Amino acid sequence: MTVLIANALILTIDQAMTAHENGWIHIEGGVIAALGSGKPPDLPGAEVIDAGGDLIMPGMVNPHCHMAMTLFRGLGEDVDDRLFRYILPIERKFVTPEMVAVGSRLAALEMILGGVTSVADMYYFEAEVGHVIDQSGMRGVVGQTLADFDPPDHKSFDEGFARTNELVGEFAGHPRVTPSIAPHAPYSTGPAVLKRVAKWSEAHPGVPVQMHLAEMATELDWCARNFGLRPVGFADTTGILKPGLVAAHCRYLDRSEIELLAERGVGVAHNARSNGKAGRGIAPVTALRKAGVPVGIATDGPMSGNTLDLISQFAPVSMFQKTLGGSRRPMPAAEVIRMATIEGARVLGLDEKIGTLEVGKQADLIRIDLSAPRLHPIYDIYSALVFAATPSDVRDVMVSGKWLMRDRQVLTLDRKKVVRDALQVAESFRIEIRAIDAAR
Amino acid sequence: MTVLIANALILTIDQAMTAHENGWIHIEGGVIAALGSGKPPDLPGAEVIDAGGDLIMPGMVNPHCHMAMTLFRGLGEDVDDRLFRYILPIERKFVTPEMVAVGSRLAALEMILGGVTSVADMYYFEAEVGHVIDQSGMRGVVGQTLADFDPPDHKSFDEGFARTNELVGEFAGHPRVTPSIAPHAPYSTGPAVLKRVAKWSEAHPGVPVQMHLAEMATELDWCARNFGLRPVGFADTTGILKPGLVAAHCRYLDRSEIELLAERGVGVAHNARSNGKAGRGIAPVTALRKAGVPVGIATDGPMSGNTLDLISQFAPVSMFQKTLGGSRRPMPAAEVIRMATIEGARVLGLDEKIGTLEVGKQADLIRIDLSAPRLHPIYDIYSALVFAATPSDVRDVMVSGKWLMRDRQVLTLDRKKVVRDALQVAESFRIEIRAIDAAR
Known about the structure:
The structure is a homodimer.
Chain A lengths: L1 E10 L7 E10 L2 E7 L9 E4 L4 E4 L1 E6 L16 H13 L2 H17 L2 E8 L2 H11 L2 E8 L10 H15 L5 E7 L7 H12 L6 E5 L3 H11 L3 H7 L7 E5 L5 H10 L2 E4 L1 H6 L7 H6 L4 E3 L13 H15 L7 H15 L17 E4 L12 H8 L5 E6 L2 E5 L2 E2 L4 H25 L1
Parallel strand pairs in A: 1-4, 1-5, 6-7, 7-8, 8-9, 10-11, 11-12, 12-13
Antiparallel strand pairs in A: 1-2, 2-3, 5-14, 14-15, 15-16, 16-17
């Protein structure tokens, strides 16, 4: 299958940040065959698309999500103990493979509408998430969670590892879905399990590890109380800090911990809106990146950050770093776009395959409509994207050369049914929340 | 003219935050005649609109803007000294009545598309802004700026006051455009001029005063060096702190200054994205509101905050206060919506007229399409608006019973021409910027 997109402003996000005005891109068998500016090549039999001056850029990479939690979106807002008051009790009661599929479908729908083409997920019954990602046409890393708080899909860590092995068995070799292991966090797994994960991981090269790390003040307390260490130092004693680890949050880091993460080759998923809504202060993203740690822009679960597109994270990512640095200079717009594409891909170990528009890479790309008055004038296209675009500006989405959305119509999911199914599950949550609140 | 909107989720934002599910609202001669839920009244000859379950809420109020600066949007991003490097030189050279009209039209277009129905502006040749607001159908407070940095429309303060008197003469009694006087800031006017403004203001009751206050670290230095005071204390010595003053920013306040602003009856325009992008830290909005100071959500000029809708300010407003408070609890979503409507109206002295949907108030309202998957499920409608809506979700806009937008089509401005005119002016700025950069 040959596709030619012409008459586009192409942002390649390659090392030199090459942009092609009046650009074209030639896709062959799902791979970028050529691209440039000026007169496009003559390709008989190609599907030719006139982009009408719209922007083409790499599909965005969301390196930390709990997709099924769309069903909890907006629940328990502004409540400090909502994890223990609402989330865990409802999860124990309601999380089934079917619920995970329903919630993950709503998440995939929203991400495609917002220009996200790759996602790293960690939740329960993760094979279901893999199926949803597969059907939606997206690319994803699906992580089986391991935790000690009586989670919905394993009664013991042995059972959790068995589930992980099954997941790896099912998705090994899948072109778009990568299986992963996801110890929930230091405090919910403990040293023995993290050591076991590190060892398991050595026996499974190419399987990413995902974990919440240095996210919460209570985690600092737990590590200090039990080991006299901070979270990163504690994690390092277990051998889990190594290339392939996607560390989510990393809010609480000191200078030596930043250097240690760089040295160990860890990637970080930064969750600006989730951290901001939790009142957790600002993660040291600028310092991490300066130390050489790749940092992607992530949404976290929709109960924490509400939306699953990256565009609505852009301004917060930049503003929080400028606030932390006390100046306009930190985190310029172009860097935000790098984080949302190639750097997120690097965090997931997918940077050879996706994250930029370069010859030989997979054709994971999005088209953005630049016609909204709020985007103009455009003195700097990256600034327009970061500070004035909205997820609704994304018009078309392609993964591996296949269209997932054209003209805002998602082609791989039944939008009405997906939303209807989600609202039905939400009704049962609503009843449960009333019961929880009444019992207090 | 009689309008009946039925089958809507109506958020009144009245004191009790009354919401009408399956609600209707009856508008007569531009005024809200009745509203409720259930079966709507039978109104022969009325224009009847079935809102199809969409949301109806008060139009939003933007209490601090420099509309014409849309033409500078995204210019000099990430540059700490951009005010002196770019803005002032370009303003001196290019700001004409025509440029102000062109830039303000783009701003009005964007604000209507984003659900803003009222705006307080301060800039130059402000009568032009008044004309644009009048033609666009919006409601506005237009403030003639007074400043000592050789601004484009007055060579002396005497000339500035003369311009202000003309502006007041032209718009006195206008149903939607309120003239205003706008001393730029303490450091750019000085004590004698602020005293003169305070006195002028006493002779012109009902004319709001707008001023940047306690915005910048350099302002703190200026006040300390010259008067041994902080900005609010200095301003108080001039008599300018009184009801009717719209104080923009108020980033640098201590406890006693917050109490003083409350005591003096000053209103505050909070610019979350503008301050965030400038790396200025977080304004004490929660403390101001607790002290009884009304605080509206403002966009600042588009060179500072980029967009002119309030929806893209919502999540930052809440997240920054939660970050400042170190908890999820500060600034719940419903409070953000109050700030964007009734509280902004109070800041501008318009709260008797607009800001809520109540019988007898002007019919300034917007319709929001709730169909986007990112908004669902909805456990809390205010949370959905604050953390997941985008300006593109606004579908219809009405001011004083007149439709300014239906189905995303702005009816009062020629969208294509407005954008084209703006891009033409931007071309001349582009050439000038190159010259400035080349000369460095």
